[in-house]
């Protein structure tokens, strides 16, 4: 399981011109689910995302997590993160989980994080989404669960 996190000043996701998820200051998480991922992978990644210290403290050091700064979390499914790009000029998606399994784990992630954190928004699994954001820093990290 892969999670690309970006520290953002704001972010939102639209489907068919309608805003379906929006946060102010916080983390945009692009979530890629791979073949073989399980609920254990979700749990590990979810813990990392919520606890990862990417926000500045009083000295400007990255020492604070999203909860400590009162930020939001916007979760967007992103199967292209699981692409194999090592060979050729066209991505291979054989390492991405099948849509049924990926949707199950995506929904598990959303449900679990909503019980643990008060400010969560999300996109719609499998939809054609337009994501807008202002990357703060820029600060971007690829996490594995």
Helix content: 10-25%
Shape: globular
CATH topology descriptor: D-tyrosyl-trna(Tyr) Deacylase, Chain: A
Kindly report the average pLDDT value. Answer: 97
Give me the CATH superfamily.
D-tyrosyl-tRNA(Tyr) deacylase
User: Count of helical segments?
Assistant: 2
Rg for CA atoms: 15 Å
Please give the number of β-strands.
Answer: 8
- What fraction strand? 35-45%
Give the low-pLDDT segments: none
Biggest sheet, open or closed, and with what strands and sense?
6 strands, mixed
Structural class: alpha/beta
The CATH architecture can be named as: 3-Layer(bba) Sandwich
- Straight-line N-to-C gap: 5 Å
Total domain units: 1
Q: H/E series, N to C?
A: EEEHEEEHEE
- In the CATH hierarchy, what is the class? Alpha Beta
Brief sketch in words of this structure:
Keywords: Cytoplasm, Hydrolase, RNA-binding, tRNA-binding. By secondary structure, the protein is of the alpha/beta class.
């Amino acid at each position: 399981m892969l999670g690309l996190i970006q520290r953002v000043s704001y972010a939102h996701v639209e489907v068919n011109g309608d805003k379906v998820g929006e946060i102010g200051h916080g983390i945009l998480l692009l979530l890629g689910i791979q073949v073989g991922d399980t609920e254990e992978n979700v749990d590990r990644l979810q813990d990392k995302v919520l606890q990862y210290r990417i926000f500045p403290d009083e000295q400007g050091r990255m020492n604070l997590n999203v909860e400590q700064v009162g930020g939001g979390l916007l979760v967007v499914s992103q199967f292209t993160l699981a692409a194999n790009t090592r060979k050729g000029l066209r991505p291979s998606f054989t390492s991405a989980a099948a849509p049924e399994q990926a949707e199950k784990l995506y929904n598990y992630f959303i449900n679990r994080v909503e019980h643990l954190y008060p400010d969560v928004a999300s996109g719609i699994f499998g939809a054609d989404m337009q994501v807008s954001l202002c990357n703060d820093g820029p600060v971007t990290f690829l996490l594995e669960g």
